[in-house]
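User: Can you recover a sequence for this backbone? Please restate the input before giving your answer.

Assistant: Of course. Working from this structure:
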């Protein structure tokens, strides 16, 4: 039986309401997907399980909504592609979170009241913050001076969600860093 006819058989069975097909599909390729994913991504078994479940659910929904009527490849290939995208997105998010955590750690360890900090840089920081929008200034002060968490900032400023809050903070921090780069490249000890 070719992969096309196998895929069509599975799709037709799902359209006819045979839920046993999706359970068999889930169980049949699950461990292979875990092995495949573990060689390509850093993650826990639960990460791979979540990606696999998302793949199965997406396949089921696409077939039931009439959006997926035939495949040019095996069903397994389609499922792996969806799982791959899920794991890739998770991996990207984790790298952003780790990167943000490293920046946060670095900024939290700076003590602007130390005598070793260049007074010119402190004055410039104050001026740069004053030149920013009030929202950016308040968000940066809340995050890095008052040490508020993302969720606390989100609730205090009535922002949509944690991702919106993080993205807004990242943009504001980027603007502040750009101001520093432009100004302090001219200083001898930069």
């Amino acid at each position: 039986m070719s992969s096309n006819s196998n895929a069509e058989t599975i799709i037709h069975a799902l359209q006819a309401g045979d839920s046993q097909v999706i359970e068999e599909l889930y169980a049949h390729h699950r461990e292979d997907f875990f092995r495949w994913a573990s060689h390509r991504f850093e993650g826990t078994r639960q990460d791979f399980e979540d990606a696999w479940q998302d793949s199965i659910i997406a396949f089921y929904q696409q077939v039931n909504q009439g959006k997926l009527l035939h495949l040019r490849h095996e069903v397994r290939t389609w499922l792996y592609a969806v799982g791959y995208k899920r794991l890739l997105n998770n991996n990207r998010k984790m790298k952003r979170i780790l990167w943000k955590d490293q920046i946060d750690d670095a900024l939290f360890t700076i003590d602007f009241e130390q005598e070793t900090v260049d007074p010119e840089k402190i004055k410039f920081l104050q001026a740069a913050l004053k030149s920013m929008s009030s929202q950016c200034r308040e968000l940066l002060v809340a995050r890095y001076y008052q040490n508020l968490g993302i969720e606390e900032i989100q609730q205090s400023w009535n922002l949509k969600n944690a991702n919106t809050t993080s993205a807004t903070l990242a943009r504001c921090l980027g603007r502040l860093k750009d101001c520093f780069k432009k100004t302090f490249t001219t200083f001898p000890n930069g």
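That completes the design. Confidence is low (pLDDT under 50) at residues 98-103, 106-115.
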